[in-house]
Amino acid sequence: MDGIRILHDFKTINVQLFNEWIDRPKKNVYLAVDYHDIPRYPKKKRDWKPRKKKCDDIDKIVHSKKQSGTHNFHRIISADVVDDEKFTIDFEPVFPDAIRREILLCLIEKAKKMVHIKAVLMDREFFAAPIVSSLQAEKIPFVIRAIKTKRTNTFLEELKEDKRIWKVYEYEFNKTSHGSRKRQRIKVKTHLVIVDNSKVEGIPAEKYDEDDRYFMFITNILVHSQETAFQLARDFRKRWGIETGYKTKKQFRGKTCSLSYAVRLFLILLSFVLYNLWISINSKLKNRIWNIPPKQLHITAALMAFFCLIQILSRRIFIEK
Asked: In sequence order, which residues have a C-beta less than 8 Å from that of residue 35 and are 6 or more positions away?
């Protein structure tokens, strides 16, 4: 079975899980988009035991900053609902030659058919002129955490000198386009918002590091008041829900030494579907059984993984015989 068929099948299963999700949101929700980098450790060929089978996933590997002892990863981009309820709406593999903005727009368009999007929350990896330009052209509301550049630092120093707790600036990306492959002059104008986190959270400024005290983000949402700026800063924290989901998916992910990309992709996407199944089961328990306190109904990720293992073993032992 090739990777295309595996991706199609898991996407079909995921849509079915979403349709059966009892807590499926009816109102506008925040959608978080992020990359999931799964470490890949290419082994060197040993003289005493040469490999007969060639790796077919080498050209699918994305190189990034070192994590978990490697620079090599299989990368998946996902779109998750990150409001009160969490759910992975869609996912897509990312290859080295992929055009990021096209994959991003495709992912968001699919999510639009399933939920009503209030805004898309993204981290610094998406702070790039081509991506911002595409989002604005499609009129997709977004909040993207800003990278510290000479221009953003200039605005930050100005805010500190004026002793202000928030301000909106006109921001234009420079000719390098922050990651654009072609160093062409792309003029993209948007709004840069800087807020003082100590005022947003009501925590004394002395308890903050200098780097953490001020939060900078770009957005195409109209920010006309301090209340709006502070609320967007608070809402952006919901993006951490996708990080929590990533840790849970990791508990469901199987390990393999296979040289086949199809096998690796199968295990990665299986963890995404099992995560959503776990969300769906807990949702049904919470909504259908009223005589037991909700805290006692929650199934942990570890227990869910154990049930899946029992199911697999029982099929091999009893059905195959």
From this structure: 75, 76, 77, 94, 125
Rounded CA separation 168/49 (Å): 62
E strand or H helix at 310, and its extent?
Answer: helix 301-314
Among 79, 31, 220, 80, CA closest to 137 = 220
Distance of alpha carbon 224 from the chain centroid: 28
Alpha-carbon span 302 to 139, nearest angstrom: 41
Single pTM value for the model: 0.85
CATH of region 3-319, choose from 2.60.40, 3.90.350, 3.10.50, 3.30.70: 3.90.350
pLDDT confidence bin for 300, thresholds 50/70/90: low
Contacts 24+ apart (CB under 8 A), 22-28: 22/280, 22/283, 22/284, 22/287, 22/288, 23/85, 23/283, 23/286, 23/287, 24/115, 25/81, 25/83, 25/85, 25/115, 25/116, 27/116, 28/116, 28/117, 28/118
**Bridging pattern class, strands 166-172 and 28-39:** unpaired
Q: Which helix (H) or strand (E) holds 226?
A: helix 226-236
Each residue of 142-179: b (16+ CB within 10 Å) or e?
Answer: bbbbbeebeebeebbeebeeeeebbbbbebebeeebbe
Query: What confidence score (pLDDT) does residue 154 get?
Result: 94
Amino acid at 237: R
pLDDT value, residue 281: 83
